[in-house]
Amino acid sequence: MVYRLLEIFSIWTRFCIVSVFLYTGLSTQQGFRFNTERSRIEGNFTVTAPVFNVDSYGAKGNGISDDSQGFLAAWNAACKSSSDSVFLVPHGKTYLVKPINLNGPCKCVHLTAQISGRIIAPPDPCRWNPQDRKEWIMFSKVQGLTISGGGIIDGVGQKWWAGDCNRDRNHICLSVPTALVVYSSSNVHLRDLTFVDNPKIHVEIAMSTHVQVENLQILAPGDSPNTDGIHVYASQHVVIQNCTIATGDDCVSIVTQSSDIQINKLVCGPGHGISIGSLGSGDSKDTVSDVIVNGASLSGTQNGLRIKTWQGGSGYAQGIIFQHVRMTNVANPIIIDQYYCAPPSPCHTQLKPCNNHSSAVQVHNVTYIDITGTSATKEAIKLECSGTVPCTKIVMEGINLRLVNGDPATSFSANVHGSSDGQVIPPVKFTSPGLQASN
Fold first, then answer.
1. What pTM, to 2 d.p., does this model score?
2. Radius of gyration of the chain from Cα atoms?
């Protein structure tokens, strides 16, 4: 009897050892260089997943050596894993990375890019290949991706800004890279990261669906050119929440072919505020619809809630709600500009002069609810709409905007069809009650 019990115990012991051996990926048949650890993969639970550490693939993390190939090798191994995996940039090190494309599709159902260390870009624009200056770090064609980890993505943009041709006409206009791009992907969760001093846009969501952006801190000087915080292009079902953004351009910008975009609990400033557009540049047809801004605090921004469209374009910006927004010393707190025209610049020599056109992007069904605070400009509300394609169904409800010193602010409106409900300070004069947009 004792012998039989010892035999059973021996069999179970061997079974457990073999199971652990196979599960941890240490089988020589696998050929992968990874270990396992308890890793937080999704929100409220932990799982054991293979971890592909960039250090195991040659990255040095000394802030001097080029770690790009180590990143690519670790990503490719994680992407090819048959089980959910973790691409790890470990805490406590600084990694110099040149432009890289971390692309899919991946074999695993879900991949976590755990960025816990600091990633820096080459600081000198001259060290960038002219062919690689559009994006710095791109995640492309991935379905089921979490990018998180509490790390820092530092674009070291000072030399790019100093050489900006808008600042100094003696400089050649260079293509400037966006820091992190999520491209042609779905079911993406980008959270718990800090972006600092990137040369241009910090985060771009492009041609993607079902993306959640959460708990990001994005920082750049207020005079840094074109450093948008989060830029949404041709994407659907995007949620941006609990982000703090202080840059030299739009905190959040939403442009063509984007729909079902939600912005919740945003802290913005300095910067250019929250922008829809610009739309219709170069006589293009652009569309943005179903946007909700629910809860935001703007401070010291050049604009507040802005919709901007070029003359000559077509398409629409419609189904937009701005609600529960607090303004502190904000210039142009509420603005619709259907006559938007970029100022003359050596970087935009291809743009045509801003002549009057009969066509325009339709602005329709826009609601402002509970917008309060102080304006840095006398005109707190400016609604400048096209005479041929007027703004329609514009609704103001619970608006209270005054100058910083407490004096009354004013409003300007032209070719605006809409209505006010309850208190609206300063009052807005509508051309007529809200009309339906023309087809």
1. 0.87
2. 26
Is 91 an active-site residue?
no
What's phi and psi for 214, nearest 5 deg? Answer: -145, 140
**3 state DSSP class of 77:** helix
Which of 67, 249, 286, 337 is catalytic? The answer is: 249
Q: Is 133 helix (H, G, I), strand (E, B) or coil?
A: coil
pLDDT tens per residue across span 161-220: 988 766 666 666 678 999 999 999 999 999 999 999 999 999 999 999 999 999 999 999
C-alpha–C-alpha distance, residues 420 and 319, integer Å = 17
The DSSP string of 343-393 is PP-GGGTTSPP----S-B-EEEEEEEEEEEEEESSSEEEEEE--SSS-EEE
Residue 171 appears among annotated catalytic residues:
no
* 39: pLDDT strictly greater than 70: no
Half-sphere exposure of 423 (CA within 13 A, CB side): 8
User: Tokens for 77?
Assistant: 């191994």
Of 189, 202, 231, 272, the catalytic one is: 272
